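Pinned message: reference record for Signal recognition particle 9 kDa protein
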Amino acid sequence: MVYIMSWDDFVERSVQLFRASPEKTRYVMKYRHSEGKLVLKVTDDKECLKFKTDQAQDAKKMEKLNNIFFTLMARGPETDISEVTGKEQTAQPPKRGRGRKQ
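Predicted structure (tokens):
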């Protein structure tokens, strides 16, 4: 099992692996507090993809990967995941509250 160094490459290959065999693909997270390392593994028993990090900022990336897998599992493997990975956010209307009138 070889670790993939690039996060983007890991995500892309993991999604391809899931789409190829959604019934057999597993996604595992392992955190070792003593070493401060997080290891992510995606496998279908034929191919194994692993990513290792010790950076706290990668936790947000892991959360996005979880959202991608949840979307693919809930909506099906052929679902477009651009809305999950995109950064488009809707503008929220200003709040009207008990502030001072201007």
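Pinned by admin. Summary line: The first helix runs from residue 7 to 20.
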